[in-house]
Amino acid sequence: DGYSQLSAYERKRLKNITENAKFFAALKLHESAARLHQIATKRQSHATKRAKPKKAEDETVRRRSMRLQRVEPSGIPTPEMPAQPEAEEYPQVPAGPLPMIPEDQVENSKLTEELLTTWMSISEVLLVTITNVLMMLSRYQGSLNSMGLSEDNVKKVVKYRVCSMAIHPSESIIFVAAGDKSGQIGLWNVTCKSEEGAHVFIPHSYSVTCMHFSPCNPAHLLSLSTESLRCGDVTRAVFDEICRSEEDLSSFDFLEGNGSTAVVGYWHGSVAVVDRRTPGTSSELSADIGFKRTRTVHVHPVNKQYFIAAGSADVCIYDVRYLKSNGNKPVSSLKGHTKSVASAYFSPVTGNRVVTVCADDKLRHNCNTGRWLTRFRAIWDPKQEDCFVVGSMARPRQIQVFQDTGKLLHSFYNLDCLSSVCSINVVHPTKNILVGGNSSGRLHVF
């Protein structure tokens, strides 16, 4: 009982972390490291290029929506959009499990094995001692002021625009995952300070819009793209396919602390519930929530039956226990948005607050990123209940930290090392580490 000063929630969280740590220690995941080399060696001959897509006559017919076929409901073809300078054709990734082998496997097989082994080893035991999650504001500002950016902590990790990021909860090594618009996932061991510290994998065919390390097993990295939700399992060196859909997926979040179930959002507006324990790649339930578009979904940190969905100009909270195919009513609706909403997230400790990003530029904050930058998403600092981080269009280029009152607490910038807009950001759950990703695949670690 050395933690009597903690709240009931914090004591419960500490107990869960301790039990998880004992569980992972019992698994002895490090014994699986030898298998990584065997798997990589077997697959080397196939790793130089992505498999070419099959010819049309060899493929089974896949149902495509009229929107994807560029056909109006009346059957009249829609006019072709003018070619955009960023548009490129990306090779298609096949359905089903994929070996965890990067493009440069043949030349750097040992380096890749080292990276994956590092990921596995730092996922074994995560015993975090919680002293006081909520710091005094002055102390919090002091911690922000102490954080800096150096040239060593800037690296191009993926080829194209960063669309999502996740940071491993390890306290000993800074390990970051970034997903880009082509389906690439880059893994970067920032701590090793080596040119070879990052490797790229291609488990998806389209933009990787959402990623999370599993809350109970950070040896699992879940990533979502338009066509599928996958789990990268480093202990087996495989990207398993959890969910595949004909309709475009947009985001996901875990419904339970064990990471076995998730709520998934669709670009066309509906949501679904997915259970990783059931066979197949179909969802357990699909629900129309009345949205024209759903960009993000996020589960309440304490009462996990509730999730918040954001889209068009809608921000609503739903109870997953009462979801049905049609006619779903929100528990609460957050009014006031006049333009498109990019994201909405509950505050990390109590969930009593919600931060949203909207194209109406509230908080006197310029959110007009244009079409060639990923839209901003304001994220809470997991260590601070009332402070959030968001990208900025201001010059010099910077990442900003606000209090929930709208007060600007801090601006992260570096005239020598940061000259671009960081639309996507992620904050370490226990350490003073911030990572910003830009439109050229470059990550900046403060």
Automatic annotation (TrEMBL):
The keyword Repeat applies. Residues 43-53 have a biased composition (Basic residues). GO terms for biological process: regulation of DNA damage checkpoint. InterPro entries: WD40/YVTN_repeat-like_dom_sf, WD40_repeat_dom_sf, WD40_rpt, WD_repeat_DNA-damage-binding. It comes from the Eukaryota. One of its GO terms (molecular function) is DNA binding. GO terms for cellular component: nucleus. Residues 41-65 are annotated as: Disordered. Keywords: Repeat, WD repeat. Interacts with CUL4A and/or CUL4B. Specifically binds 5-hydroxymethylcytosine (5hmC), suggesting that it acts as a specific reader of 5hmC. Belongs to the WD repeat DDB2/WDR76 family. This is WD repeat-containing protein 76. It comes from Dromas ardeola. The gene is Wdr76.
